[in-house]
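Lab notebook, bench 4. Still working through the backlog of constructs that have no structural model yet. Next entry is a single chain of 548 residues. Request: give me the structure tokens for it.
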Amino acid sequence: MSVRIAFDNPPEFYTNLDIISGRVMLGINRPENIGAVIVKLEGESKTALSAPDYPGLNPKSPGLQKSQVVHENHKVLYKVQQVYPDESVPAYSPSILLNPGQHVWNFKFKVPFNNACGDPNAMAQIGGLAGAGGFAGPSFFGMGGIRLMDGSKQLFYKHVTKTLPPSFTGFPGQAEIRYYVKVTIQRPGLFKENLRHQIGFKFLPIEPPRPPVTNQEAYARRPFTFRPKSPGLGGPSTPPLNPKRSSMFGRKASARSLDVNGASDADQPPSVELSARLPHPAVLTCNKPVPLRLIAKKLADSRAECYLTSMQMELVGATTVRAQGLVNTEVTKWVVVSRHGLAVPLQWGPDDAVGREMEVNEVLWNSKPLPNTVMPTFVTCNLKRTYALELRLGVSWGKPPGTTSKGKNHAVPDLTQTLFLPLHFSGVQVYSGLTPPAGLAQAAMTSRRQQTRTSSHAGPSSRPSPRPNAAASSVSSPSLPPRQQQNDPLYPPQLQPGQGVAPPSYDEAPPSYDEAMADALAPVSVEGRPAWSGVTNENAPDTLASKN
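Model written out:
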């Protein structure tokens, strides 16, 4: 007996609103009793951390033992579909005998927007009374199948409702996010094991709606001033040590006008401000260059010239890993641009007025996209990825070493001062580059308005007035209909012996606004999608123990 899963026209990766369809192929060489064929679309965010050696370092989890490894597993995506027999067939129906050969069943899912681990109704599908695989009906030993996972454990964790996170397997043994389609072939019988198979896929979320383009910019700037050069070490601007005699009674004055300290006007130390600017809010895009502007501003009246000699741009990613009170932050750096040996002037000329600005040519970095191992910014229940941008700029006073001056063929001597200026952008967002559908932005604005209107109309609850007397209240107040008892979907009422499963007397809860919009919007076009960006191996062995 063998089982396989095949996707229909799989893209490089899936995203929100995509339709994941395919086939389950079961091959058997002898007749087999099959209870049901269940296909699941699942996504898991797993973390595992080791307790510190000193208990005082972790006040949130004082009961953990030394070096104890704790796990936290969130079912960020969970959808179930029974492909055989039809979902209209009750779960307590007897198993069906399949003839030898190959049997094929089709499945189809639509990827939602947000994670589902905080939704008790979605987690109730993991285990319960109704549906295939639950406790139901007069099958062998009175059970149609036993589920080993308990969705109630998800309710003990802290959850956030956010967009589904991207696939990630960059920290083996510590954190991973996986998405997969899993099939379970239920075989009734005490000594028969259910047949399972799963296949993973890459997932990259749709980016949130971008704000409108404005002239606002986020900037990081740093002014600097060089130290005055010592007399005799200023290079060509220093007056000669042995000037020519004009007569036997005196010396000829130098052509340069010297100040009291013996330095000329060209030796006055320059003062320049370098500012790096990004569009506000600071948003970068996977597989695209950084939209940076580098501007130099003259601050002091000096004829001295400054040059940009080196530039290094690094993207710093911080991954926050949480597991039952333990928190660890892993820092990863990507070198986006690294340029050395430059001689880019930072002024138009030596006679520039104070306050004049000059923008450095963006050719230094506009051809360098972000590395394809950078994943988008995301926040989920036990994992978070944030970014910062760091620049290190080398600036020299005078021609950099190894360059040639105008009209001369010999190299300029190494008499320059060089400063290295760090610039830092915090709170940088990295988007996936997957543009949301046209109706998504309008839907998000409508949902935000509805939430604001609901919160503004909901006033403080007023305390009921005391009842005057029982007789008057019995006459004036109408009798209320009996209220149905509310039951937790994870803990349904127990059935008495011989009592059947009665259908509920109420309809299912209506879908939320996000679910309704997800069903109404069309998937993102495959042709216009960018390339994959991130670190994952969707079908690699699991590096974390499977614990809820």
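Notes after review: The CA atoms of residues 58 and 326 lie 7 Å apart. The mean pLDDT is 77. Flag for follow-up if needed.
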